[in-house]
């Protein structure tokens, strides 16, 4: 990934934080059928490998499985908040007019060699953990055990498990760090008017660099 120094993010806890907050990621493989990509929800286990272990499941009928079983390196792309930035928010616009629009975003790319798992116990645990994590904001959380056991067992037969120990990981937080302070404050105010989550990311990184 193109990573100008101002936008580079290497802190593992920050990278894992984005992955947990935005678990639906693009799984990319290259196999005999060429490049393939699927959106898959992942869990990140920070202690499962030196840089973290990704866990997921996918349909047994998914034709990406052939590439995953071959053991070639896979790439997983996590996309955080993103937002268009208009030059109208920049104080510099009124001073020089030498400004252009841009797009702010935060993203994490992870690489590793996939492992396919078919253990019923592993699948039941992974599906349960993913469900519990996804349901935690609900007033009355649904659990896998709420469904009839024969139905759950039948559903499990249609999926396989996936683990990817992260061998390499990169993060990019493009959140206006390359702009003067007054421009960054303008972006924070502009995004704040619509309560866009990118506004808080810009403000957070602005506070870090101002301390």
Could you characterize the architecture of this molecule?
This is FMN-binding negative transcriptional regulator. There is one protein chain. The chain is an alpha+beta fold and 211 residues long. Helix content is 33%, strand content 32%. The protein contains 7 helices and 10 strands. The strands form 2 sheets. It has a 6-stranded antiparallel sheet with strand order 1-10-7-6-2-3. Strands 4-5-9-8 form a 4-stranded antiparallel sheet. α6 (181-192) runs antiparallel to α7. It starts with 7 loop residues before the first strand and ends with a helix.
Q: Mind describing the biggest β-sheet?
A: 6 strands, antiparallel
The helix count comes to 7
Rg over C-alpha atoms, rounded to the nearest angstrom: 20 Å
Helix proportion? 25-40%
Give the overall average pLDDT: 95
Quaternary:
single chain
Strand content: 25-35%
Strands ordered across the widest β-sheet: 1-10-7-6-2-3
Q: Give the number of DSSP strands.
A: 10
Uncertain regions spanning at least 5 consecutive residues: none
Shape designation: elongated
Order of helices and strands: EHEEEEHEHEEHHEEHH
Which class best fits the helix and strand makeup? alpha+beta
Organism: Kaistia nematophila
Protein name: FMN-binding negative transcriptional regulator
InterPro entries: Split_barrel_FMN-bd (IPR012349), TR_PAI2-type (IPR007396)
């Amino acid at each position: 990934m193109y990573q100008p120094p101002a936008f580079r993010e290497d802190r593992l806890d920050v990278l894992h934080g984005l992955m947990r907050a935005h678990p639906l990621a693009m799984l990319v493989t290259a196999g005999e059928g060429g490049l393939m990509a699927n959106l898959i929800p992942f869990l990140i286990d920070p202690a499962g490998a030196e840089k973290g272990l990704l866990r997921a499941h996918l349909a047994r009928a998914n034709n990406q499985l052939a590439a995953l079983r071959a053991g070639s390196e896979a790439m997983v792309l996590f996309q955080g908040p993103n937002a268009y930035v208009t030059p109208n928010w920049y104080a510099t616009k009124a001073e020089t007019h030498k400004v252009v629009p841009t797009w702010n975003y935060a993203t994490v790319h992870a690489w590793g060699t996939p492992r396919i798992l078919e253990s019923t116990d592993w699948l039941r645990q992974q599906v349960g953990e993913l469900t519990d994590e996804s349901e935690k904001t609900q007033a009355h959380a649904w659990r896998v055990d709420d469904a009839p056991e024969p139905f759950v067992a039948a559903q499990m037969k249609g999926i396989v498990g996936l683990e990817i120990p992260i061998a390499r990981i990169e993060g990019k937080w493009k959140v206006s760090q390359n702009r003067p302070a007054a421009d960054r404050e303008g972006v924070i105010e502009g995004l704040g008017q619509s309560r866009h989550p990118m506004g808080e990311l810009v403000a957070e990184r602005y506070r870090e660099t101002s301390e």
